[in-house]
């Protein structure tokens, strides 16, 4: 009886690359929904995405080898949607709707590949940019982040002997399972995995998704990761992101157009999607101004995803607005997704229980929480606040204000102009942990 | 590239038996030391060993399938010492001494096999006995206990899906590693693995031994498990057990002979071994009477292993006796091995630090502590107080009084006779957890 599979061992010890992203479906579902709209409505718009490391004390370019990063990015560029993946995208039901992707869009997607990137090192950081047509560059956000985060984990674990790795993952598993046991006590909660971009690694994300599936059962509603959704027969979840209002705002030619642009985006969205996909992301330029100027029809949408205000205050503000518009919040949905931890999930759930439908999109703290797990002390396994944001559209600077000034992105002068248009009301600076 | 090793998969799915004991060296080292003496001095003595489940609420015969137990015991009987094992026993240095086993003994050992057993079920328990020549039956103690304990673990985990098993072992590893981190704070402590008989499984004991090796380094002095010592280049540790005074006491013909028998055993032992192997096990018939009647030369021995008194009181009593005999306890060794947990190890260590040399033989709570680890509640993974004791010698009942009446074994009338001879002084009933 062979004790060692010789072929596998030789393969394992001679491989050139352990690819982090192995499928174009290894991305967030909302990217595909947005992509169909961008492809349909804004095929000529250019949009540059840029890596932004908010945790500047972490010198990414010192921790991660540039050549390894290039090799991973280059590998991602070789990927195409496989036959099986295309068939699944065309044949699966998403959000209760069949054929959510049009045959024309899918035909185009079949030839999709990630466009070129620009990478430089500066002051210990990577300057990583994805310039080009929006309908190509938008697809870099998730793989770029997943690659950098996993390369950083790998670098941190390079010096770990097998036993230390064994202890590390044993502790991480024990910790994750304890979280599921706490959440299990709230059987009516609704939680989904939003942790692709910030994950420790693909395999770890998969384990965490399995843990939620086993641990909280029906309370686990799905994953934003399309590949994991396909592989594990889960719902693929997610709707839209800040890049939509940010690009459309950047393209406006007047302050009045700028002010109206957040609603313009919603109208675009509604041409493509309905039902539970009608989720408003209100905080691109501050939730207060968004609600103040919102047309009545916005209150007809299914729900809101407050993404940068403290969850309880943010949720209460939206509920007050719904009531003001004559809507019963108990028929509405709030999706929380900003920096969630078990504690804040439970606290938020208890606060809103019975008052509004709610759902939690759990990200970084789900798929990259190794605090206290390493048997050898290292900072390299602590998740950092790394994002890949649209920074310009057709050569014009793109801006995000957010409800939390610490999460604002864009040229400072342009931020000032946006603040003049949208105001600064109720924006509260909070530390951005992840 | 093959993703599945087909041959291995087929093998794994068609095997008839997953043997628990796969080597005659998978036993405690003291069994071999005692065996050499028994073989040399008492080759004609018969001794029956019997399984005793002190935790009668656990109905072993309901939890464990009798046929599986027979298959495992039968498999153990097929084992012989392998060439490599014989060479290692002959060539290795034990307790700093080369050729601790004589060539004549090793020549006999080469043909050793475990003798027959008798197995019946009664009232939900197994009646498992090993009658026959002492120099054969003595070797059943450890494999019989290891087999039953691992069969019990397996039975408890039979209904666990792969994910539950993954969580179980992740938690157990995290728990074990936390113990090593606590013990690491006491760099001068000396700890060894005495957990073979009570282990959850062979693989788990191996993991725990690796964890101690990685986690506390030099403070981990070795293992009682001969196979693990050989495989991992650790010291094989252990000296002698209660069976020696119990058998010799049973063979005596007068109360005076009986009273002297515990010292007679030591004289036998001293003919074979010296140095750090001169460890007194004082509690077979109560430590108080043992110390009261002990000849002065007993104080020249290297140390004591108090095995049933509370560690601090028991240790203090022996230290007082040493002082009374004009010995400085700081030159002497106390080996604690009864029901140790991290807490009691640390407490005992702190109490005796600087006053006496000491060492901890960590058993059940090292290799079978799954409390709080199972994601599905089960009592089947809680270790139980299961022993395999000599119950008769040449047809006469064998007795152990112990410092803890809850650990006494033997016929009640015979126990009364022993109590008349040795007295009941300072024996204190304590709950036997493991």
Question: What do you see in this structure?
Answer:
- Chains A, B: One of its GO terms (cellular component) is cytosol.
- Chains A, B: Pathway: Cofactor biosynthesis; NAD(+) biosynthesis; nicotinate D-ribonucleotide from nicotinate: step 1/1.
- 2 copies of one chain form a homodimer.
- With 434 residues, chain A is α/β, with parallel strands linked by helices.
- Helices cover 45% and strands 12% of the residues of chain A.
- In chain A, the strands form 3 sheets. The first copy, chain A, has a 6-stranded parallel β-sheet. In chain A, strands 4-5-1-12-13 form a 5-stranded antiparallel β-sheet.
- The longest helix of chain A is centred in the middle third of the chain and has 23 residues.
- At the A-B interface, helix 1, helix 9 and helix 10 of A face helix 1, helix 9 and helix 10 of B.
For the largest interface, the chains and their residue counts are:
A-B, 25 and 24 residues
- Return the CATH class of the largest domain in chain A: Alpha Beta
Strand content of chain A: 5-15%
* Widest sheet, order of strands of chain A: 7-6-11-10-9-8
C-alpha end-to-end distance of chain A: 49 Å
The radius of gyration computed from the alpha-carbon positions of chain A, rounded to a whole number of angstroms, is 21 Å
Low-confidence stretches of chain A: none
Total helices of chain A: the number is 18
Largest sheet of chain A: 6 strands, parallel
Q: How much helix is in the residues of chain A?
A: 40-55%
* Tally of individual domains of chain A: 2
CATH superfamily of the largest domain in chain A: nicotinate phosphoribosyltransferase
Average residue-wise pLDDT of chain A: 96
Family (chains A, B): Belongs to the NAPRTase family.
GO molecular function, one term (chains A, B): nicotinate phosphoribosyltransferase activity
Organism (chains A, B): Kumtagia ephedrae
Keywords (chains A, B): Glycosyltransferase, Ligase, Phosphoprotein, Pyridine nucleotide biosynthesis, Transferase
């Amino acid at each position: 009886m062979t004790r060692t599979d010789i072929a596998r061992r030789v393969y394992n010890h001679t491989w050139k690359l352990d690819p982090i992203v192995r499928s174009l479906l290894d991305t967030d579902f909302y990217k595909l929904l947005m992509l169909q709209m961008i492809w349909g409505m804004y095929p000529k718009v250019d949009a540059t995405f840029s890596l932004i490391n908010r945790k500047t004390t972490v010198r990414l370019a010192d921790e991660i080898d540039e050549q390894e990063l290039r090799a991973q990015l280059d590998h991602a560029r070789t990927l195409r949607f496989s036959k099986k993946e295309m068939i699944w995208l065309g044949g699966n039901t998403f959000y209760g709707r069949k054929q959510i992707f049009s045959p024309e869009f899918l035909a185009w997607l079949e030839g999709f590949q990630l466009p070129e990137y620009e990478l430089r090192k500066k002051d210990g950081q990577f300057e990583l940019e994805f310039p080009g047509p929006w309908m190509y560059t938008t697809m870099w956000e998730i793989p770029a982040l997943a690659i950098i985060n996993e390369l950083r984990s790998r670098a941190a674990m390079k010096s770990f002997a097998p036993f230390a790795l064994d202890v590390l993952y044993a502790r991480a598993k024990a910790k994750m399972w304890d979280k599921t046991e706490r959440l299990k006590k709230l059987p009516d909660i609704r939680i989904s995995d939003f942790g692709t971009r910030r994950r420790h690694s693909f395999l770890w994300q998969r384990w965490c998704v399995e843990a939620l599936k086993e641990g909280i059962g029906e309370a686990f509603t799905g994953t934003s990761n399309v590949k994991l959704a396909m592989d594990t027969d889960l719902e693929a979840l997610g709707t839209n992101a800040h890049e939509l209002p940010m690009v459309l705002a950047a393209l406006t030619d007047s302050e009045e157009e700028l002010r109206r642009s957040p609603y313009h985006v919603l109208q675009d969205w509604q041409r493509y999607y309905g039902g539970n996909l009608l989720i408003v992301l209100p905080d691109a330029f501050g939730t207060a101004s968004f609600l103040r100027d919102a047309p009545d029809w916005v209150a007809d949408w299914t729900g809101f995803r407050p993404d940068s205000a403290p969850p309880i205050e943010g949720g209460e503000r939206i509920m007050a607005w719904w009531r003001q518009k004559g809507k019963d919040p108990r028929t509405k949905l709030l999706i929380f997704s900003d920096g969630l931890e078990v504690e804040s999930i439970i606290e938020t759930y208890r606060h809103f229980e019975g008052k509004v439908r709610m759902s939690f999109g759990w990200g970084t703290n789900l798929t990259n929480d190794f605090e206290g797990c390493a048997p050898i002390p290292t900072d390299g396994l602590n998740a950092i606040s790394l994002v890949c944001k649209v920074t310009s559209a057709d050569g014009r600077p793109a801006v995000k204000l957010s409800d939390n000034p610490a999460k604002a992105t864009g040229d400072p002068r342009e931020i000032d102009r946006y603040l003049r248009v949208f105001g600064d009301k109720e924006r509260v600076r909070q530390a951005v942990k992840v």
